Structures are given as structure tokens and as C-alpha cells.
Amino acid sequence: MELSLATRAVAEHAVLEVGGEVDVYTAPRLRERLNELIDSGARSIVVDLNRVDFLDSTGLGVLVGAHRRLRPLGGRCALACDKEPLLKIFRITALDQVFPLYPSVEAATDPSGPSA
Asked: Domain STAS: where (predicted)?
């Protein structure tokens, strides 16, 4: 399956909607788009994984890389995901302790919510 990427702004957040499979073949495109967002000044990025069917360790590495680039800039990378198989990956790898996880983009960008 192909990877789809779409970017939109929600308040001060850059939202990257990801669809399809994030694997060793498609992860470089995701990395490139995240780097473009950071290089263009985005400091609050929400990666919407609700249309992702598969995520491997390469994809996890890309997300961690974005987190590591944003942290010294005072930024943050949050994830919107309500798919239990993906959430299980984040729990098993303890990345649920690294990334703020939200069930939806709306929850991740809600100014009254925790850490938003």
C-alpha cells in the first residue's frame, strides 16, 4: 500500500495526516515531510496516525527523530491515534512515555486539554 501525506494548520499546530503503510520503503518520505515542517518553523506538530494501517520500527525511528529535533527548539510532537494495534506498539516500546498520545487531532489541538 502507498503512503499518503497531507499537511494542514490547526491553530498554532501543524497537523500531518498520514495514511497507508509506514515502513522501510515509505519512511524516508515521512522523514522528509517532518523535516520540512520543522525547517519551516513548525514547533507544535501533531502526526495523525488514524489512517495508518502498518507501522514498523523504521517509522517509529522517524517519529523519534522528529521528537529529538523539536525538543531542543522548545517544540513538541504529539500523536493522534485511536487504533489499538498501533497503540500497542507504542506501549510495548515505551514510546507512549515519550509522545503525548491523543485519540484524535481535535483532542491533540484542544487548547483546554492536557499538554496542548
From this structure: 3-112
